[in-house]
Amino acid sequence: MVPLSYYLVLGGILFACGITGFLIKRNLITIFMSIELMLNGVNLSFVAFAAQWRALSGQVFVFFVMVVAAAEAAVGLAIIIAVYRNRETLNVDRVNLLKL
Amino acid sequence: MTPDLHLWLIPLLPLAGAAINGLFGKRFSRQAVVAVALAFCGAAFLLALSIAARFSSLTLPHTEQLATWLRSGNFQIDFAFYLDQLSFVMVMVVTGVGFLIHIYSVGYMWEDTGFYRFFTYLNLFMFFMLTLVLANNYLVMFIGWEGVGLASYLLIGFWFLKDSAASAGKKAFIVNRIGDFGFLIALFLLIKHFGSLTFTDVFAKIAPLSPETAGVGLLTSIGLLLMFGAAGKSAQIPLYVWLPDAMEGPTPVSALIHAATMVTAGVYMVSRSHLIFERAPMAMMVVAIVGTLTALFAATIGVTQTDIKKVLAYSTVSQLGYMFMGCGVGAFSMGIFHLMTHAFFKGLLFLAAGSVIHAVGGEQDMRKMGGLRTKIPWTFWTMTAATFAIAGFWPFAGFFSKDAILYRAFQSNWIYWAIGVFTAFLTSFYMFRQWFLTFFGEYRGGKDAAADHGGHGHGGIHESPKVMLVPLVILAILSVCGGWIGSERFDKFLSPVFHPTAVVQEAAPSAPAEEGPSEGLLTSVSIAAAALGLGLAWLLYVKNPELPGKIAASLGAFYTAVLNKYYVDEIYAAIFVKPLVDGSRRILWQTVDQGVIDNTLNETADGARDVSDSVRHMQSGNIRSYAGWVAAGAAGLIAYMVWMGTR
Fold first, then answer.
1. A99 domain-assigned
2. I want to staple B45 with a disulfide (CB 3.0 to 4.6 A). Which of B95, B158, B259, B347 is the partner?
């Protein structure tokens, strides 16, 4: 059996990749994908713990997260399309009309 | 049972007048202001007269309880008024002379822009003064005591646009405050040891005590502190310095407050507390010495002054000294007698001086007057009466009271008497000097003053209007006749206050009267002193007008010192005022206030700004930097937990 720590380290690496991408990327879609990556890193650790402790609640959490992530993807993509239509760019540094 | 006297109305009426004039006077015409002021003041006088008319049917002392002011355990202070022979005399003097001076002020102040303000203050003063003399306990007396100080401050600084007037007002107030401090401490001592401030209670507890002959005891301390308070209010050494400066006020004010009434409050207070003083021989002696020295000291300064009002101011200080001398040798009733006659003739002197000043167009320097005898005859004759009265010539009022004091002083200690007689000579000299300089010889004012005055639509030297002359004449009559009551009858009248049967007659000095000179001899000596003063003044200022200059020159430094009032003001300024001002500026203001308090605040504010300056850069508005901080924070938190877990 694969030890729990392997899963957790993989989840941590996925999460860290997500954060890094979120922080350094300019493109909205890439940022969006980074967020999905972070969610999946967390999901991985949830299922890993669930398997380890033979508890179903971890699996249930993952489903909830997936549902929310799907909803978020729908809304987020709609916003991205709207932004692109208005600004003709997806560079976040140029989507700054609300900033002083 | 004494009928209802409505004593409370006597002070309250002038207060009502002050309130009406103070609140609405600005919109009133001058006539209306006069009507209000005179009506309320006159009503108080009429009420006092009605009491006088019923006087023989009254059972005195009469107390009128109005309300409880404060109560704390057994200690209670009431708003209550107290009428006995002493306060009756004071009420008559205050309302009577006060009313006359109100009338006079109508003429004197008519053209002043602050007309309504003047009468407001004058009425306010009457309220406080009457509260002072009618109070039945020390605390209500203290209300009046402080109140007259306030009124005095307001009236000295009446022409507050003039810098000297404003600072004279301040000086009077502050010096009075120093004296009040002593008075207050005395009151605290009374509360602590006798548990009451009501006159009757306190005196009932003091009466059985025996005199403190050995050392300084409680009564001596109380007496000395009361005397200190009285010295502030009544301008005695060492606190007399404010009174001469107080002459910055309008002349009627000088007459009412700084001659006839307020400054005598100290004498009244000491007389009221006579039981305390009679049981504290040392305090009595201090009163007598202070009075005697003040009388002499002020009289010598008076000799050199050239300002007509300043002469009178020093003369007032000197005469107050006589009153304290009288109180100090146990002749309280004579002190009050002199207080009364002094109110007549000194009030008159000031009013007449005001009339002179009015006549020559605001000039106060006597060297620029002269020859006014024929031009302002009414003023001349009334002032003559007052001058003879203050100099102590028979049968004018001042003779009787001053002579009575001197006689009693001689029985106590001949030194008091000797200084008193010498002072009487000086008094006579400087008063006749003033009389001769003002009314005799040639007019020395020059044409420009008269011409300048003509610009105001008066034209030349002129007699004052009737409204000013009537009070002068009435006071002149009183100055002549006021003393005819005689000191013995006056003494008998006041004896229920000063020699109640329960009190042991104070020790022997009345017995050895047959040894030593008789009263007749002493009287002739003091009249001779007065005549000598008159003669010398005539010699120096009429016969040989150049002689005074030569004498002054030959006296050299001494004359300069006296001319400059012995440099007392300068000495006080150097010893008390300058350290206080410098200390306040350097230590309290620049070190404590600016250095500590202000700096603490400023530094705190600066520190807060510096910290926020450095921190606010985090709030960049860049979403990714926020996310970075969140991530870093989360990483830090996890690292901490991991570290804790592995320990």
1. no
2. B95
